[in-house]
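Memo to structure team: turn this sequence into C-alpha cells by end of day. - J.P.
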Amino acid sequence: MVESNVRPRRRGGVRLRVTATAVAVVGAVLVVAAVAMVRFVDRSLAAQAADDATLRAQQIADAGVHDGVTIVVADPEEEFVQALDGSTVVSSSANVAGSPALATPGPEVAVRLEVPNIAGPFIAVSEVGEGADGPRTVVVGLNIDDVVEARRLVAISLAVGIPLVLLLVAVMTWWLVGRTLRPVEEIREEVERISSRELERRVPVPAGDDEIGRLAATMNRMLERLERSQERRRRFVADAAHELRSPVAVIRQHAEVAVEHPEATDAADLGRVVLAEDERLQRLVEDLLLLARIDERAPDLHEVDLDDVVLAEAERLRGTTSIAVDTRGVSAGRVRGERASLERVVRNLVDNAARHARSRAAVGVAHRDGYVVLEVEDDGPGIEPADRERALERFVRLDGARDRHTGGAGLGLSIVRDVTRAHGGTVELGESGLGGLLVRVELPSAD
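Reply from structure team:
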C-alpha cells in the first residue's frame, strides 16, 4: 500500500480561530452595549415620568392644599396624589383614600413603588406647598408600566437582534478570511508538490502588493536560490568527480602498463607517477573539503595580522621560485577571521601570481575606508575583462596554458572568493600596473 505524502487538510485552523475571535469580540461589545441601552432607555423614560410628576406636584402645591379634601386626578389607574403633614396623610386622591403615606421622597428625589389595588409600578416625587393649616408635602405618583414595557421591548429586540448580528459577523468573517487565505492555501498546495527534483516550479503570486503577495514573492526567491544552489551542487559534484577521475585514471593506466609490460617500465618510474598523481589528488581533495567547510559553517573569527601572513607567504615564494617578489607595499593590517583560511587565500594568490608571472610579482596591504585591502599582481598574460568574473567560479580554466598539470583544478581563485565572502569581504580582478593580473581582496578591518 502506497502512503500519500500529502497530509490531510485540517478543517478550521486560522480561519476558525479568526472567526471565533471576531464573534467573541463583537458579541462582548454588543452585550455591553445592549445592557447600557436597556438601562439608558429605562432611566430616560423614568426621568421623563419623574419630571411630569414633579410638574404635577408643583401645580397642586401652588394651588394650595386643604386637609380632608379629595384631590381630583385625571386617570385613577395612572396617577395618585397624597398630601402629608409630616408622615400623616391629610388629603389624597380617591384611588389611594385610606392608605398610609406611600412614599416620602426628599426634594428632587424620585422613588419607585407599588400601589395597592392599582396595577403597575409607580414613580413618586414630592413638592412642599402651603396649605390652609400650614406647610404640606404633596406626593404625586405616575404609573410607569409603559416604561417597563418599553424596556422589555428593547431587551427582547436586542436579545433577538444580537444573535442575528453575530451570525452575520460569523458568516462574513468566515467568508472574508477564507477568501483572504485562499492564496495562502494555493501557495501551500504548490509547495507541497515541489520536491528536490522540481525546484524550477514556483508558487502563484496573487495580485496586489500585500503581505501574502510579498510572502509568495519571497518564497519564489527562496526557491530560486535553492534551485541555483542545487544546480551549483550538482555541477560541483560532477566537476569534482571528473577531476578526481583524472589522477585515478593516470595511476591505473601506468599500473596496467607495468603489469602487462614489466619490461617497458620499472618500479621507480611507476612510483614517481603514483606520487605525482597522489599529490595532485591530495591537493584536490583538500580544496574540495575546504569549499565544503566554507559552505557549511561560518568562520571562527579571531584577530589576524594579515601583513604577517602576506610577508611569510612572500618569503616562502622567494625560496621556491626565481620570481622577484616586491613587498614594499605591505603595511600593517589587522582583520578578524580564521588564520588558516586567510593563509590559504594569500597562498593561492601568490602561487597563482608566480605560476603566470614572467619575472615579477608584487603584494601589498593597506587600510582604506574601514577595510584592509590586499593586492597581488604579476607581469603575466593577465585575464581578459570579459572572463574575469567567470575566472572566480569553480573548476574554470580559461585557456590551454591553465590545464590540470600547470594550472591545477581551477579551484584556486574560487577558494579565494568563497573564503573572502565568508569573512564579509569582496574580491575583484583587474589589470595590474605590471601588465598582468591584479587581484584585489577587501576585508573588514579589525581596528
